[in-house]
Amino acid sequence: MVFLTFDDGPQPEITEWVLNLLKERQIKATFFCVGENVLKHEELFQRIIDDGHALGNHTMRHERGTRTSLKDYLKSVNQAGELIPSELFRPPYGRMTLRQAWSLRKTYRIIMWSWLSYDYDHSVSIESVLSNAEKDIQGGDIFVFHDNIKSFERLRKILPQFLDIAKSKGLNFALIQ
After folding, report:
1. Do 88 and 54 meet the contact criterion of CB atoms below 8 Å apart?
2. What is the CATH number of domain 3-168?
């Protein structure tokens, strides 16, 4: 089993494209959503739920934990938590302070990743990302992709091929719960 995750949505067109691809391939994923995006795109957020995917909290405004006070960070997570029914949390940028982590683990399961898609990073070639997937991905991995505007052009090229690679390795997708 492996776990496919998406950060930063929901975003019109982008999350819709992801959901359509996942439905076509009969794959379930976990979406770590930003609270502000949930408020702006409630119908799309509901589609994630209706399509049977899992949810996670990704803060209210995608704050960088290492640059945000404990009080403000916890407030952001709690605000998003009022909108996103989940005990899963992933910090934006994959970083937060130790105090933030200790405080959040009382209420949330903090979920990081073992394989980063670099879909947002134009300095990493798509060929390199896919080559690394061929070599490195294995059972138990948590993959992170991004359903945001910055990543969309590269995501459309990487994700279908990545899913083909995972399938060729006999990997099965499961939800983080």
Report:
1. yes
2. 3.20.20.370
Say whether pTM exceeds 0.85. yes
In order along its 177 residues, the chain shows pLDDT tens digits of: 999 999 999 999 999 999 999 999 999 999 999 999 999 999 999 999 999 999 999 999 999 999 999 999 999 999 999 999 999 999 999 999 999 999 999 999 999 999 999 999 999 999 999 999 999 999 999 999 999 999 999 999 999 999 999 999 999 999 998
Nearest CA-CA partner of 94 in 122, 69, 117: 117
Residues contacting residue 21 through CB under 8 Å, at least 6 positions apart: 159, 160, 163
